[in-house]
Design a protein that fits this description.
- Strand 1 and strand 2 form a beta hairpin.
- The chain has one domain (38-231): Cytochrome c-like domain (Cytochrome Bc1 Complex, Chain D, domain 2).
- It has eight helices and six strands.
- The chain has helices at 2-18, 50-62, 88-96, 128-134, 146-149, 154-161, 209-224, 228-270, and strands at 25-27, 32-34, 99-102, 111-114, 178-179, 187-188.
- The strands form three sheets. It has a two-stranded antiparallel ribbon. A two-stranded antiparallel ribbon has the order 3-4. Strands 5-6 form a two-stranded antiparallel sheet.
- It is mostly helical.
Length: 271
């Protein structure tokens, strides 16, 4: 079975190369190491924590959504399998809390109405110009795929949200900027969005910055890759198939060559 063992080891090596590293990495663009956190959805067989995703959505709803959009998500996505899995009634209630612009009506005018589950998440600003005007010229990025768009993914988002500190004495800060040890250049226009107790948790989880940061980072990871669990399951099936296929091929090779060896041995004896 030595050949099978070698093949299996090669398969594992290729799989490991395809998985994100769990170790801390020094990113020259950030100037600081982004420490890897423990996530329930870590590869190769992880799953999202439903309660954590629901808490993360709450943090997004009450904090992040004041400045950041999530244009690629609809409220009904919150009920789909593999996500926060809110009930349909809960999703309808959550959607109705947002007012969105619709129309035109019979008189050709736009109007405001409560959002429906099929609607996209409400954007905090009507357009980019309004967003910049409200944020001192800075444009808050859309968060739909932020966890996949930034190196480090949820680890980076967590590090950013917990990375606000007083600027070093020898560092000159630009006007309106805030020091953050995880952000490239360490100067960020966004003030610290989180503080202990700013969002109420009802499941007994302690309402502190560290938990807020972890929960919303997990939620943004799901938002960026809602099919992550299905991808892991598919990968596991492929690995099992390859292992079984390797064993079958090894046994077939052994059976075929054993007959060849017997034939050669018989021919030598006859000679």
């Amino acid at each position: 079975m030595r050949n099978v063992s070698k093949l299996f080891a090669a398969i594992l090596a290729v799989s490991a190369m395809a998985l994100p590293s769990a170790a801390s990495a020094e990113d020259p663009g950030h100037g600081a190491a982004i420490e890897a956190q423990e996530w329930s959805f870590a590869p190769p067989f992880g799953q999202f924590d439903r309660a954590q995703l629901q808490r993360g959505y709450k943090v997004y709803q009450f904090v992040c959504a004041n400045c950041h959009s999530m244009n690629l998500l609809s409220y009904r996505n919150l009920a789909q399998p593999g996500g926060p899995e809110f009930s349909e009634k809960a999703v309808a209630t959550l959607a109705a809390q947002a007012q969105i612009t619709d129309g035109p009506d019979d008189k050709g005018k736009m109007f405001q109405r409560p959002a429906r589950p099929a609607d996209r998440f409400r954007a905090p600003y009507a357009n980019e110009q309004a967003s910049r005007a409200a944020n001192g010229g800075a444009l808050p990025p859309d968060l739909s795929v932020m966890a996949k768009a930034r190196q480090g993914g949820p680890d980076y988002i967590y590090a950013l949200l917990t990375g606000y500190e007083e600027a070093p004495a020898d560092m000159k800060m630009s006007k309106g900027m805030h020091y953050n040890k995880a952000f490239p250049g360490h100067q960020i226009a966004m003030p610290h969005p989180l503080s202990d107790g700013v969002v109420e948790y009802t499941d007994g989880t302690e309402p502190i910055v560290d938990n807020y940061a972890k929960d919303v980072s997990a939620f943004l990871m799901w938002a960026a890759e809602p099919s992550l669990e299905a991808r892991y399951r598919l990968g596991a099936r492929i690995m099992i198939f390859l292992l079984v296929f390797a064993v079958v091929m090894y046994l077939a090779k052994k059976a075929v060559w054993s007959r060849v060896h017997k034939h050669d041995h018989a021919a030598k004896n006859a000679a």
